[in-house]
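As noted in the main text, all predictions were made from sequence alone. Below is one such record, for Putative membrane protein (GlpM family).
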Amino acid sequence: MIALVNVVVVTGMLVVVPLGLRLVAVPEVLRRLWLVGAVAGAVSVWLPRGPAAVVLALVYALGAIPLALLALPRLRRVTPVRVAVATALASPAVAATALVAERGGAELFGFSLTILSLTVAHFHFAGFAAALVAGLVARGEPGRATMVAALAVPAGTLLVLVGYFLGEWVEFAGAVVLTCGMWTVAAVLVRGGPLAVVAGGVLGVTMLLALSWALGEATGLPHPSLGWMVATHGVGNAFGFGVCGMLAWHRLKEESL
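Prediction:
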């Protein structure tokens, strides 16, 4: 499972985030800094835990922190689109925090190294990609449903994170909110070109898996294992939604947010 998680994480670092940053008003120097950090982070996940892996993870963090700082000015005037984009820009910093701890073998806040590794993946896709695409959709087709989705995706992502601390039912509530937002986004995407159709169609399945897993964790009902979730939900979101979704927006030549 760890090797597959690493493939998903590296895809987020080297493909999804760079494509996404070209869709927002991120200065070129910061995009180049991200790539330097992303390469270091990508190497880090394949090394044994220890000082070398931590140093490379810290270089990755240096590329993520400026993006988080760019999120703050967007919240001076709060709109659903701005909230979604700010969430996307801040998410890599959360991933970086988890990565540095995991590479150093430290169970941050008591979370296992496996959960920290999955958090890195989660905040590249549910955090960055999902929030960014929700913002793009809300701007491209403004309406009550898409604006609510642009808020629901960041809110759901935050609730899932809070659920790590407060318990499975909070995490399940976050999964419900996030799924509702992403299914709304998917309904718009499937009306686009082939890549957008793939991205939207994949979301319909992967978010259903997320709901079933979160419900099972909260109730004890049978649900997919973490390994199965990585192979289905994780891979689907990485390649079917993340990569295809970003490429779809580049094909549409959307102006910067």
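The two ends are 36 Å apart (CA to CA). The chain has a mean pLDDT of 91. These features were considered when defining construct boundaries for the mutagenesis experiments described in Section 2.9.
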